[in-house]
Structures are given as C-alpha cells and as structure tokens.
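Design a sequence for this backbone.
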C-alpha cells in the first residue's frame, strides 16, 4: 500500500496531539486522586501514540522518495510533534505515580493525626 507523505505527516500531528491531550487529562484526574479515570486516559494516550508510531514506521519505510531524502519543514514538524508527545506521555506517567504516592502519604498522615487526637 502506497502512502502519501502528506497523509503520514498529518497523522503524526493528529496522533501526537491526541496523545498529549489524553496525557494531560490523565494528570488532571490524578490530581483529584481519580486514578481509575487517570489510568483510562493514560491508556487512551498510549493507544494514540502507538497509532502515531505506526504512521512514523510507514513514513520511514517509504523508499526512493525525494521528499524523504530532502525533508520538508512540515515533515520535521510532524516527527517532532510525535516525539514531544512521547516525552510528555512518559512524564505524565511519572507525575501520576507521584500523585499515587502523595495520596498514600496523606492517608497515613491522616491516620496518625487521628490517633493523636
């Protein structure tokens, strides 16, 4: 199946943006300690990133294409968009783990305070 470079670039941007959107939603839910929702949005972010990665692989597999040999600004932008989304997804996962840890500490602190009261 022959793909057009422009189509692949648009898919990189689309899925990169969707990855970032879902990762930030996951952080928002984690901030409220709603980890079921946070996990749901992390999963959605991961799926969007994987879709983008599929298009990245298709793009890289194009051979003998002048556009790839001399990448355009749009092509570089699309690849950068997906790469940034991957970094933000990884960071979101770490932030959410910190919120999980924070919630556990708050529960322990509350329990200790109740014992002293």
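Sequence:
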């Amino acid at each position: 199946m022959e793909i057009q470079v422009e189509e692949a670039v648009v898919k990189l941007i689309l899925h990169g943006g969707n990855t970032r959107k879902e990762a930030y939603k996951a952080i928002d839910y984690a901030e409220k300690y709603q980890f079921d929702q946070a996990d749901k949005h992390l999963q959605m972010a991961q799926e969007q990133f994987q879709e983008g990665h599929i298009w990245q692989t298709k793009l890289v597999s194009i051979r003998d294409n002048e556009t790839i040999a001399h990448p355009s600004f749009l092509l570089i932008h699309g690849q950068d968009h997906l790469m940034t989304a991957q970094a933000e997804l990884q960071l979101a996962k770490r932030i959410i783990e910190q919120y999980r840890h924070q919630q556990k500490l708050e529960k322990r602190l509350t329990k200790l305070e109740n014992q002293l009261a």
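The radius of gyration is 20 Å.
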